[in-house]
Design a protein that fits this description.
This protein is mainly α and 324 residues long. It contains 16 helices and no strands. It has helices at residues 2-14, 17-39, 41-49, 53-80, 87-100, 109-122, 125-154, 161-182, 184-196, 198-202, 205-211, 219-246, 253-267, 278-290, 294-312, 315-322.
């Protein structure tokens, strides 16, 4: 019992906001220090010196076009949940969320802001949460499907066995979650379970489950949501390719189709600030596969981070002038 109580006290201490923040800063700092020392600062500076401005202009064009498509997709999903919202408001919430992501662990801080803003505006927290959840599922599902299509085209099962296992496993997990929440029998079982346990009824679990049922059944809307999701994720991959071209690195779109889904999932792990350190580690891991040096991989990663940061900073003034 003493052992259990001591573990509880340790866990309660680690959950404190300032302790959690310090831990993430330390993890990010140590990983970044190790990678920078491994890659040598002079070589990284050389990577930045090779930046081509024409590719950077294309990158930011795709960046903001992607945000526009995200707002359109979210508007489609909200309509399926009988929520009407202006495109401009959704665009503003998404940009502000991207800005807030720079200060919070993982990549979910922006989603939390969008949930809060949408809940305050509509009073329907469960439905707003459901649409944001399905946005995530559609995004990762689209990326993973693109990666699996790329693997099929490559036809190198022995060399790509790890990617087949990882992407295939993620695809099955997402499909399982999607099917489970949409399956009527699952909701009926939960309803019977709640009848036996009044505490679950008080927590409003049934209301949450009803909200999280996938409601996009109208064929044109369903096709539109999936097409937009694939466009957004393919444009994301192209943005990585543009950065590679901007700093003169021989990175192929087919390799990035395998890399980007795994990178985004790794960055979601809330052990660093805005994925700093985690992102660079994943880039270095793939460096040999791309045929580039570790220094180039770290430079590639830092360029991706810097340009994403610059694009998201637009959300700062938007938040400042639109806040109540």
């Amino acid at each position: 019992m003493d052992h259990v109580s001591s573990l509880t006290r340790i866990w309660d201490f680690l959950k404190k906001p300032y302790v959690s923040l310090v831990f993430r800063v330390v993890v990010s700092g140590l990983l970044l220090f190790f990678l920078l020392r491994l890659a040598v600062l002079e070589k990284i500076a050389d990577v930045f010196s090779r930046v081509s401005l024409a590719y950077l202009a294309l990158y930011f064009t795709f960046y903001f076009l992607g945000v526009v498509l995200m707002a359109i997709r979210w508007r489609y999903l909200l309509k399926a949940w009988d929520i009407r919202q202006d495109f401009g408001v959704l665009f503003r919430w998404i940009m502000t969320g991207l800005f807030i992501n720079n200060f919070l662990p993982g990549g979910l801080g922006g989603d939390a802001f969008r949930l809060y803003s949408g809940s305050q505006d509509t009073g329907r927290t469960e439905d707003m949460a459901a649409t944001i959840f399905y946005e995530r599922v559609l995004s990762y599902g689209s990326l993973v499907i693109l990666g699996l299509i790329s693997l099929t085209q490559r036809a190198d099962f022995s060399g790509d066995r790890l990617f087949w296992l990882l992407l295939g496993g993620i695809f099955l997990a997402l499909t399982g979650v999607f099917a489970l929440l949409s399956f009527p029998g699952f909701r009926e079982r939960i309803a019977r379970l709640m009848e036996r346990h009044p505490r679950l009824q008080k927590r409003g679990l049934k209301k949450w489950l009803d909200s999280f049922r996938f409601r996009v059944h109208h064929p044109p809307m369903l096709v539109g949501v999936f097409v937009i999701s694939f466009l957004i994720q393919f444009m994301d991959v192209i943005m990585f390719w543009l950065i590679g071209q901007a700093i003169w690195l021989p990175v192929n779109v087919s390799d990035l189709l395998l890399f980007v889904p795994l990178l985004y999932l790794a960055v979601l792990i809330p052990v660093s600030v805005n994925g700093i350190g985690i992102r660079e580690t994943v880039f270095v891991f793939f460096a040999s596969r791309w045929g580039i040096s570790q220094a180039d991989a770290v430079g590639f990663s830092l360029t991706v981070f810097t340009l994403g940061l610059v694009g998201s900073l637009v959300g700062g003034p938007i938040y400042w002038f639109s806040r109540k």
